[in-house]
Amino acid sequence: MFLNALEHMTRRKLILIVGILSLCYLLLFWRGIASADLQSLRTESGIPASNADMAYAALSIAGSMLSVMVWGLTIILGASILPDEMEAGRMSIWAALPQSRFRVYTSTTLAPLLVSVIVGYLLFGLTALITSFYAPFTPSSIPLAIFSMPVWLSATWAFVILFSMIVGKIPAMLITFILEGFTVGMGNMVELAKGVPELHESTFYTVARVFTFVLPFERGYRCVQMGLLPKASMIEEALAFLGFGGDLPLWEIIYPVVWAAVLFFAGYRIFLKKDL
Amino acid sequence: MTNTAISVEGISKRFGRTQALAENFSIEVMKGQSLAILGANGAGKTTLMRAVLGLAVPDSGSISLYGLPPADPRSRIGVRFLPERISFPKWATPLQMYRQFERVRKEGREIDFIHRADNLGCGDLLNRKLGKMSKGQRQRIAVALMTCGSPKTVFLDEPSSGLDPAGRMLVRSTVAELVDRGSTVVLNSHLLGEVEKVCNWAAFIHEGALVAHDMLENLSRFKGSVLIETVDPENMKRFLGGAGTVKGKSLAYPLAEEDGFAELTEKIAQSGVQFTGIQLHRESLEDIFMRIMEGETDVS
Question: Count of CB contacts below 8 A, A vs B?
Fold first, then answer.
């Protein structure tokens, strides 16, 4: 059943569009970084930028764009998988086969997560690889980047799957997009506050912190970047507000997975009682 | 070992304000039975099928499929379901769809599917994308996918939908073949003429309630005449005292009571007039349907 869902998913025109866009992006990124005069870059204090600084700058900027793309793909695929199958009348056939509803639910919904994670690995991985040709660097922790990719995307995936069954495909996409954007903003505030003690004391910080706790969409993304970006960079401190530096407590990495699992099972409870 | 394939006991189902299946709906289907579920649009026929397959959860009561609740996947081993509306992915070919189904059900051989598709007149379409087929072609493929091999039970919801007369005939013979081979068939169709030819049992549903459930021959009433097929109907009419109506090569002879059939048959045999058949004129399924749907629930 999982293979069926995966086969169906990869045949969608959306995947072709994402493939073409990704290729265009990678070619443009390659061309951009190849034509950039990296040697003339200076830090604020006038010191020539190191390879690590250049890689940090290139990857942190590219990462913002990539994250929107991968997030978007996860939201669109996740929001449409169950409603599309139900609308087409195929879900009743799958569920009438000798397999449990749990198997139908997990197999069908895990396919978009896997596709998104693979696209994420390819885009972030190839971007880092291209960058390393022009500004050789050592990522802080490749295992952290690899582990964090599914952590990051599973939170969004579980949320959008659940909402697609409650409010339908399009509203689920819109709600998730809006909340994602808002949560990233809040997450940036939390990171900014880490370097500004006055902010740390404010109510706004508390609100932002609570928000990122209730909707932990962006913790995983920061961990991907943390693992991918070079450690020995001078500009890391200047870009601290991005939240890609420093250390993150382990529970902040684990928490989105637990959160996603809870939402995933809540979605299953709805699916179980649904008339197909 | 029980002989019951499907057992529905006291279920009810409501969709919002609509009572799809009335309180205390019960029905039993034996193994090898071919049951037609009949009723007007919105009567609850599809809901009943879906409830039996575990696709719609009843509000009360219990259902068992081969002794197991529908939630148990083992209850659906060898069970096939063709819904009324299905939209296959446009990119897929029939063979790809078959392989997708087989990944889960693991019941058949590809050759059986190919044979079934051949029998349904769509064997040449197996490598064509479903998105490039007509509605009728897709429906034939759908029927082939759900009836290939040796299914234990087949639920068919309007299987002839969108088919031309030739396609309908092929579907009918497919269903008849399944019945002959001992499969339990539950058929939901508005084409009563076809249903009559392949089903031996019928369940009539009216506004969510089961109003009649019996063998077709028990549901069909005697219409007060006997149809005698003979080469010389006028001579036969004279011999029987001048009663009856001649129509082509047959004579419709009035018979007050069904019990008089044996005596009449004997009389005709002694007439010396050549005849090829004698049969009681009974209600067609359409007649039964109209009678029941017009509110006459006393069908015995």
Answer: 75
